[in-house]
Amino acid sequence: MKQFYLKQFPNEEGYFGKFGGSFVPESIQKAMQEIDAAYNLIAQNSDFIAELRKIRKHFQGRPTPIYFAHNLTREYKGAGIYLKREDLNHTGAHKLNHCMGEALLAKFMGKKKLIAETGAGQHGVALATAAAYFGLECEIHMGEVDIAKEHPNVVRMKILGAKVIPVSFGAKTLKEAVDSAFQSYLKDPHNAMYAIGSVVGPHPFPKIVRDFQSIVGIESKEQFLEMTGELPDIVIACVGGGSNAMGIFSGFIDDSVELVGVEPLGRGEKLGENAATLSYGEEGVMHGFNSIMLKDSKGEPASVYSIASGLDYPSVGPEHAYLHSIGRTKVATILDKEAIAAFYLLSKKEGIIPAIESSHALAYALKIAPNLKGKKILINLSGRGDKDIDFIANTYGYGEVY
Ligand SMILES: *Cc1c(COP(=O)(O)O)cnc(C)c1O
Known about the structure:
- This is Tryptophan synthase beta chain.
- The beta subunit is responsible for the synthesis of L-tryptophan from indole and L-serine.
- InterPro entries: Trp_synth_b_CS, Trp_synth_beta, Trp_synth_beta/beta-like, TrpB-like_PALP, TrpB-like_PALP_sf.
- One of its GO terms (molecular function) is tryptophan synthase activity.
- By secondary structure, the chain is α/β, with parallel strands linked by helices.
- The chain has two domains: 14-57 and 96-206, 3-Layer(aba) Sandwich (Rossmann fold), CATH 3.40.50.1100; 61-92 and 214-396, 3-Layer(aba) Sandwich (Rossmann fold).
- It contains 16 helices and 14 strands.
- The strands form four sheets. Strands 3-4-14-9-10-13 form a six-stranded mixed β-sheet, with helices on both faces. Strands 7-6-5-8 form a four-stranded parallel β-sheet, sandwiched between helices.
- A hairpin with a 2-residue loop joins strand 1 and strand 2 (19-20).
- Bound molecules: pyridoxal-5'-phosphate.
- Pyridoxal-5'-phosphate is lined by residues 93, 95, 120, 122-123, 198, 238-245, 310-311, 355, 357-358, 382-383.
């Protein structure tokens, strides 16, 4: 399998082992096949690749650096702690990596409009940014709970010219926003392109988003080798749908590097109190793909919870389900309160305010670092925390104890 993992998975029907696929009505199936065919065509096209490279360098500000967290490393007296700084990617998170790719694909296909859901608002902001860049219309569906919690991102989307559609049914969070966005897309698949926010959804989205995010892994491997002369021992990323994790994991998947996905344990292990899908879920189909999901007593997607809106999802990318099932990746969990502690620590000790999502990955790294002297840990710092500061300061204060 060496060196060939990314080329082998998914197969032509979009399967990673038994996970993935496309469970959608006939009418959408056709639209999905068109997107897949267009993507396969442009992925080989040197003009498309050159255009994407130019955008990454001059618009997004890539490559993002790897930073050696010297203060935390000294304080924890164990493994070296390194951060891949996706918080420095334009718009403040890794999501623009796949949004620029998806929008370029939409442009290539002659689409006029981008439609998507958003949780924390990060995907909405990234897609609205991409839409502005390419001169496309943009419609973002967002749960009312998240709209209240992530106000600055809502304002950003509107300033960028996107239409924000509040979703007021069910738990009013990410899962309902996906349903709502999909319904809107169904009305006009000819002129619109659905631009999903993670490595989830029906084939070909998990593949497309993974491929666009793989730039994080490619850069990380090169930069880490240049910095330290070797590969990291452990790579850690938070997992909501799983795009930032797949992005960085994909660079190391054929190497002997431990890969750990960190899921949100929220307030605890009880169903409804967390969104730790791989840890507690079971196989099932949701939003058009087969994966591991958290189900309620009726077998429907459970309502889930995390302090991090971006991790608040009852399923997970099918590639994560597969990699976990074959033992290639490990899964860990982090409570809200552990993520909050990590949020304050990185802010005060290194001068970097992380997204509360990314704080989950950091919290797990800080947990294991003291016992791993001589090892090196690379964390994907998926985003910056500006969007979270008001909520955290109002709820928990300024973290004076850290
Ligand atoms: C959306 C988001 C996540 C979670 O999404 P993945 O697809 O699991 O990466 C993580 N971190 C940040 C900063 C986000 O905005």
